[in-house]
Automatic annotation (TrEMBL):
<keyword id="KW-0862">Zinc</keyword>
<feature type="binding site">
    <location>
        <position position="68"/>
    </location>
    <ligand>
        <name>substrate</name>
    </ligand>
</feature>
<dbReference type="InterPro" id="IPR003000">
    <property type="entry name" value="Sirtuin"/>
</dbReference>
<feature type="active site" description="Proton acceptor">
    <location>
        <position position="126"/>
    </location>
</feature>
<keyword id="KW-0963">Cytoplasm</keyword>
<dbReference type="GO" id="GO:0017136">
    <property type="term" value="F:histone deacetylase activity, NAD-dependent"/>
</dbReference>
<dbReference type="Pfam" id="PF02146">
    <property type="entry name" value="SIR2"/>
</dbReference>
<dbReference type="GO" id="GO:0036054">
    <property type="term" value="F:protein-malonyllysine demalonylase activity"/>
</dbReference>
<keyword id="KW-0479">Metal-binding</keyword>
<keyword id="KW-0808">Transferase</keyword>
<feature type="binding site">
    <location>
        <position position="71"/>
    </location>
    <ligand>
        <name>substrate</name>
    </ligand>
</feature>
<dbReference type="InterPro" id="IPR029035">
    <property type="entry name" value="DHS-like_NAD/FAD-binding_dom"/>
</dbReference>
<feature type="binding site">
    <location>
        <begin position="192"/>
        <end position="194"/>
    </location>
    <ligand>
        <name>NAD(+)</name>
    </ligand>
</feature>
<dbReference type="InterPro" id="IPR026591">
    <property type="entry name" value="Sirtuin_cat_small_dom_sf"/>
</dbReference>
<protein>
    <recommendedName>
        <fullName>NAD-dependent protein deacylase</fullName>
        <ecNumber>2.3.1.286</ecNumber>
    </recommendedName>
</protein>
<feature type="binding site">
    <location>
        <begin position="218"/>
        <end position="220"/>
    </location>
    <ligand>
        <name>NAD(+)</name>
    </ligand>
</feature>
<feature type="binding site">
    <location>
        <begin position="24"/>
        <end position="43"/>
    </location>
    <ligand>
        <name>NAD(+)</name>
    </ligand>
</feature>
């Protein structure tokens, strides 16, 4: 774990203890899951931003359910890639190698590839494909099948299940935990995100204000690249293991 151990920060080589990692669609791209904005970010000629909203769900629930049923099924045919696996090594080995060391993994992704790669603690700030949210009783249930046929909620029996996904205009999950992790960390690493969606896109600025070292690992420069101390470009399945190992 050489690369993760040290990073130039304000001219000095430092050894981070607490690391916060943010991942986006780019870490899952090489597992075959489409990103949002590469290739136009379209689905059946709909902009994702136009489908992933409460208004779209109210206007055309079947269209939105079909959109998520298709992606929920597709995700289950994909496999974690070496980038996911490298982060599992970091999560397991960092606390052993560095006294007080800790890794907090925050993802914008709604797939379960981090978990299937072996990550034990994942903060899904935008929700999860494999979870259904009952609008009648507010219960969340693990769900891997379609919702288009309005199945009954496992908790209350009412056919009121929606994708447990944070849509545009909705408040992301576990923001307090994320802010607390950033306030205690000394390194923020962003992997595979365009920096197009807030509040996630603002984490690097918060990290800079808090005095963290900041590193971006991405296929290309992002909207937030100017805020990072260092940006390394390349495919996640190559540059993430190279950084961790
Ligand atoms: C909020 C679930 C308030 C959906 C997602 C008007 C009205 C309402 C809100 C707003 C508004 N204007 C602005 C906003 C805020 C809005 C926002 O930011 N809009 C954008 C479009 C301007 N945000 C919200 O609404 C958020 N909520 O603001 O509530 C609030 C906030 C805090 C506290 C209190 C109140 C909610 C946003 C969540 C939306 N839901 N996902 C779904 O999945 O179906 S967002 C969606 O975009 C995904 O989660 C995705 O992860 C995320 C970000 O995209 P990326 O992951 O970065 O993916 P992208 O395709 O963009 O980029 C891929 C990157 O990977 C690229 O850089 C590429 O180069 C790189 N890459 C590609 N291949 C590889 C690679 N890198 C490495 N290796 C490779 N092989």
């Amino acid at each position: 774990m050489t690369a993760a151990r040290s990073l130039w920060h304000e001219g000095a080589m430092t050894t981070p203890h607490k690391i916060v990692i943010l991942t986006g669609a780019g870490i899952s791209a090489e597992s075959g899951i489409d990103t949002f904005r590469d290739g136009g970010g379209l689905w059946e000629q709909h902009r994702v931003e136009d489908v992933a909203t409460p208004e779209a769900f109210a206007r055309d629930p079947e269209l939105v359910q079909r959109f998520y049923d298709m992606r929920r099924a597709a995700v289950q045919t994909k496999l974690p890639n070496p980038a996911h696996v490298a982060l599992v090594r970091l999560e397991r080995e960092w606390p052993v190698r560095v006294p007080g060391g800790d890794v907090t993994l925050v993802t914008q992704n709604v797939d379960d590839l981090h978990e299937r790669g072996g990550s034990l603690r994942v903060i899904h700030m935008h929700g999860e494909h494999l979870s259904a949210w009952c609008t009648a009783c507010d219960a969340r249930s693990r769900w891997d099948g379609p919702l288009i046929h309005r199945p009954a909620c496992p908790a209350c029996g009412v056919p009121a299940l929606r994708p447990d996904i944070v849509w545009f205009g909705e408040i992301p999950y576990r923001m307090d935990e994320i802010h607390e992790a950033l306030s205690e960390a000394d390194l923020f690493v962003s992997i595979g995100t365009s920096g197009a969606v807030y509040p996630a896109a603002g984490f690097v600025r918060l990290a800079r204000e808090l005095g963290l070292a900041t590193l971006e690992l991405n296929l290309e420069r992002s909207q937030g690249s100017g805020w990072f101390h260092e940006t390394r470009l390349g495919a996640a399945s190559e540059i993430v293991p190279a950084w961790v190992d």
